[in-house]
Amino acid sequence: MYFIQILFLFIFENVFGYKILVFSPTISASHMLLDGRVADTLAKGGHDVTLLEVEFKLPLGSLNTTKYAKVKHIKGSFTSSIDDKILQEINNMLFQSINPFFILNVFLPYVKEANRKCESKIKNKI
């Protein structure tokens, strides 16, 4: 009798799926494809996955990034006000020695602006 109960424990394994949000800014096609593959792998593993594609550089819908995960798009450039400054700083980095503080100083305004715009979108009920 106990043998059958133990056998059922091994046959019917408990699996719990999680709700997972994969944040995918449209910075580059390679980033979007990687994020889509991560979302698909998690979805095939039994999780409830939503891929949140936020328009940064590439237009939304320019790539079919996922087959299994749900997709939510958020339109509107998040960082347009500082893009030119960031690109100029990146061009300047090509011929300099780079340390972590330099990178932090270059990308911190970008991150702050993105955070500010995200907060604004959330307050406006996306």
The percentage of residues in β strands lies in 15-25%
Shape: elongated
State the helical fraction: 40-55%
Main pleated-sheet profile: 3 strands, parallel
Individual helix count = 4
Roughly how many Å apart are the termini? Answer: 56 Å
Q: Count structural domains.
A: 2
Which stretches are low in confidence, meaning pLDDT under 50 for 5 or more residues running? Answer: none
| pLDDT averaged over residues | 80
Number of distinct beta strands: 3
Spatial strand sequence of the major β-sheet: 1-2-3
Strand pairing plus helix content: what structural class? Answer: alpha/beta
Cα gyration radius (Å): 21 Å
The succession of helices and strands, N to C, reads HEHEEHH
Give your account of this protein's structure.
It comes from Meloidogyne graminicola. This is Glucuronosyltransferase. The chain is α/β, with parallel strands linked by helices. The protein folds into 2 domains: 1-76, no CATH class; 79-126, no CATH class. It is 48% helix and 15% strand. It is built from 4 helices and 3 strands, in the order H-E-H-E-E-H-H. Strands 1-2-3 form a 3-stranded parallel sheet, covered by helices on one side. The longest helix has 24 residues, at 100-123. The mean pLDDT is 80.
Summarize the structure.
The chain is α/β, with parallel strands linked by helices and 126 residues long. The chain has helices spanning 2-11, 29-44, 83-93, 100-123, and strands spanning 19-25, 48-54, 70-74.
